Model the fold of this input.
Amino acid sequence: MTIKHSIQTAFRGLETNRARSLLTILGMVIGVTAIILVMSLGQGAQNLILDQVKGMGTRTVIVGGGREPTGPSDAGQIFSDSLKPRDLDLLNRRENTPSVKYVMPLVFGAASASYQSDTYNLTIFGVSPLMEQIFDVPLKTGAFFTNEDVRARAKYVVIGNKVKTQLFGASDAVGNIIKMKGNNFRVVGVLAERGQDFFNFDEAAIIPYTTAQDYVLGIKYFNRFITEASSDALVPQAASEIKSTLREAHNITETDKEDFFVITQVDLAVRLSAITSVLTIFLTAVAAISLIVGGIGIMNIMLVSVTERTKEIGLRKALGATDKNILTQFLLEAVMLTGIGGVVGIILGASLSWAIATGITRFTSIVWTFSFPVSAAILGISVSGAIGLIFGLYPARKAARKSPIEALRYE
Amino acid sequence: MPLIEVNGIKKVYFDGELQTPILHGVSFVVNRGEFVAIMGPSGSGKSTLLNLLGFLDDYTDGSYKFDGIEAKNYTADEIAKIRNQKLGFIFQSFNLLPNTNILENVKLPLLYSDFPESEWGERAMKAIRSVGLVHRALFDSAKISGGERQRVAIARALVCDPEVIFADEPTGNLDSKSGGIIIDILQKLHEELGHTIILITHETDTAEHAERIIRIKDGFVESDTKVAHPQRMGEGDLDK
Ligand SMILES: Nc1ncnc2c1ncn2[C@@H]1O[C@H](COP(=O)(O)OP(=O)(O)OP(=O)(O)O)[C@@H](O)[C@H]1O
Ligand SMILES: [Mg+2]
Done:
């Protein structure tokens, strides 16, 4: 029997029970759609994160207090207090860190800000005016506070775009006084809208770090030093200079005793994309379970079909079909069911992912680019084909092994 | 030349502990070109015997030579090929594929044959013509009468030019007129085209269209007689 006729025969078999075939396919469609959707969205998320991290500047080197967090449960370490003002001084001396262009201390904490009757929960960032260069945050109105203001512990604040809208609506913010942690801050500037970015500056209040330490957070240490290497090539050099300076300052001789961590933008990108990869793999695995459920559905239907068509099987054998012919016929039916389900699932998954990407881009400030990994399509097709083979094999063998006379007698 | 030689063939049905012996040692020879009727009381093992001869079931003991070779020596694939190329089956209950037209039903054995696809249509139409159903070729098999269905089954049995046609009570589900047409067709296949036919029937009238009647009783051959003057239908009203 030629392949062409095997396919025709299998197709006729499916056609005879159209409603049932469609319902069976649906199980596969859902599974494959889920996989494609997860993989496509995962890829999109990864691209987004990488873009954001890149927006931080490729020369940025971040120093954090405490041991580097090893995972979400380890997050408490972030608030370790090992970075002191003396460290800032040492890092600012170019003889210690010749490859570093500048160092900006950073402190942060959550607070609520209120203006008249409106209150908004935001993140306070205590920084120096270097912030403008390091993060490339243009102001929509007003001006950044100066180094003079930092020294004077001025109660000046630059607010994110969203904070501005929430507290002031359409009216002017600059010049007005908002209250945070019992202190009155004068709004000196409003950031231009940022969209989704790594630090979420849209929902931030940016104040001099000295003011933040003394009046708002009540701490004597820094959460981070954001530094910049003098060139892309010098990033690793800068990182190691910072490390050795801090080690000496903290009297540390063994690497695993370090009470600070240094990460570069490249490190960060690698780490974040690893996290999204793991998440994507995990979600894909979850979606794959639904494929197995779909496969079991196929097997179930094929078993019913084989029993129902016992007489047909007997007849075909009496007319000269070999066991292999019968096996092929039923296996092809199963593979066609899963294959069609797979193709529809891929199309549906890709369309949904595209719709989500377009929706996110249109209705939020995030620019989400649709991406459809070819690997996902290949995976979808091969997995659904394989499921047809695996779950179709048992029913097909059952059909092939029927004795012709018993099959013909079956009522 | 003997096409079918059975010698002391036995059949026992096994159902767990339960053993049901049906054929106790049946022997006879059928030559190419013969038209043989098998008769016997219900339950005597006629269908059982025919299924053995048609390679649809295995015999328990004895010898069955088809075309000079012991049936047990054929491999599964050779048996499939024999069923396809050398045997034609006609069942009491027609066994046509549902939702399939007559032409496609007749073509079914060709799917499993070595004939090139270019010949299929011609072969099928020739078989359909020989049972007088050309005008119905594209009718759905569910929309024709019982007699016509059995004629489709005959055409299907003929399509690969088999050596022998096995018919197990082909008229059992038909009225006497339709049944008569079927027997007439079988008789013509035998007389005009030289087909070997083995026909099971209950009715002596029907059996007497054959040249020879083998009677089975209690699992043995009771008698094996020539029919001196095979009966003949009134001149067929086939292509009515
Ligand atoms: N698979 C089986 N297992 C056990 N017994 C069986 C089986 N098939 C048939 N038999 C028994 O074998 C006996 C012969 O059956 P068979 O069908 O050959 O009879 P028959 O001569 O064709 O009868 P009829 O004229 O009614 O068709 C019957 O008693 C039947 O019950
Ligand atoms: Mg019978």
About this structure: The pocket of adenosine-5'-triphosphate (ligand 1) is lined by residues B 13, 15, 20, 22, 40, 42-48 (CB under 6 Å). DSSP finds seven helices and ten strands in chain B. Chain B touches chain A through 26 residues (CB under 8 Å). The longest helix of chain B spans residues 176-193.
